[in-house]
Specification:
- The protein contains eleven helices and nine strands.
- It is of the alpha/beta class.
- The longest helix has 21 residues.
- Strands 3-2-1-4-5-6-9 form a seven-stranded parallel beta sheet, sandwiched between helices.
- The relative contact order is 0.13.
Length: about 300
């Protein structure tokens, strides 16, 4: 049995990851300072991983085979900038350092599509659409800057240790209960995001079912030994969270995208997960068309 430690196990994505890994036969160790880790976790511990000593203690106590690092201040501007940057970067460093030093074989770090820089107050224009992993990053706030640093931290340990690392940029994560009307991480419901393009348009209409994200992470754990160390993957739904084609809708919300948006046809999203499909054989299974409960 593979022992897999999940940080942020009570979070929007963490809950689905814990359940998915447990169902696949992993012995899951949930680490989160807040309650809510699913009962599928074999053990739950409220450790503060911003403390390097606690991070080392957790790795030494449980000796996991793999670590899924999801813990973070998860949304921009939800806390002060200094706290967001300090927390997220310290978490990434501590988890990577402790895992590699104690012989953990595999580490997956959660990043964010926001590293691309959309929403910048001074304006933003994509280099091209759909956006892939080669697109330049342009962080402009503490949250997405912290995620760029997390990716670079992961990459630095990939270059200096035997542990196998990768990072995932999951699009706007939708937990299962949110399809039934529970508020999303922005505070709006999915129906509100569909009815008001100005809301979903701020993040380029991207989204991803938490269960699809969990499936990707499971596949990535299996394939890590065969991949170049330190790879980064976008993960998003196969369509956009929009009622109209993005070629028409996206320029209406963000005029600077007009030229690039012409390349998007039909229900195509602004982010492509083609790399994950090519290197991992992963494709998203769920769409708002099939998951949204409207009754």
């Amino acid at each position: 049995m593979t022992r897999t430690l999940v940080t942020g196990s009570a979070g929007r994505l963490g809950r689905s990851v814990v359940a998915s890994l447990a169902q696949a036969g992993h012995e899951v160790i949930g680490i989160d300072v807040t309650p809510g880790t699913p009962p599928e976790a074999a053990v739950t511990l409220p450790a503060d991983l911003t403390n390097l000593g606690e991070a080392y203690d957790v790795m030494a106590r449980f000796r996991p085979d793999a670590v899924i690092h999801l813990a973070a201040i998860a949304t921009p501007f939800s806390r002060t900038d200094g706290l967001t940057f300090r927390t997220n970067t310290q978490l990434a460093f501590n988890v990577c350092a402790a895992a590699s030093s104690t012989g953990v074989g595999k580490v997956v770090v959660a990043s964010s599509p926001t590293v691309i820089g959309y929403g910048a107050p001074g304006g933003w224009t994509p280099s091209y659409l759909p956006i892939d992993e080669e697109h330049p990053v342009a962080p402009w706030n503490a949250y997405n800057l912290s995620k760029v640093v997390a990716e670079q931290t992961m990459a630095s340990f990939a270059r200096s240790s035997e542990t196998r690392f990768a990072a995932v940029r999951p699009c706007f994560v939708v937990a299962p209960e949110e399809w039934a009307g529970a508020p999303t991480q922005s505070g709006h419901t999915i129906v509100e995001r569909l009815d008001r393009p100005d809301i979903a348009g701020a993040s380029l209409f991207n989204y991803l079912d938490a269960r699809d994200a969990s499936d990707l992470i499971s596949v990535l754990l299996e394939r890590l030994p065969d991949l170049p160390n330190g790879e980064v993957f976008f993960a998003g739904a196969a369509d956009a969270l929009a009622r109209e084609p993005l070629a028409e809708l996206l320029p209406a919300v963000i005029p600077s995208t007009a030229a690039a948006a012409a390349n998007l046809t039909g229900t195509s999203p602004a982010f492509t997960s083609a790399k994950a499909g090519r290197m991992l054989g992963w494709t998203p299974k769920r769409s708002w068309h099939t998951e949204l409960e409207t009754g």
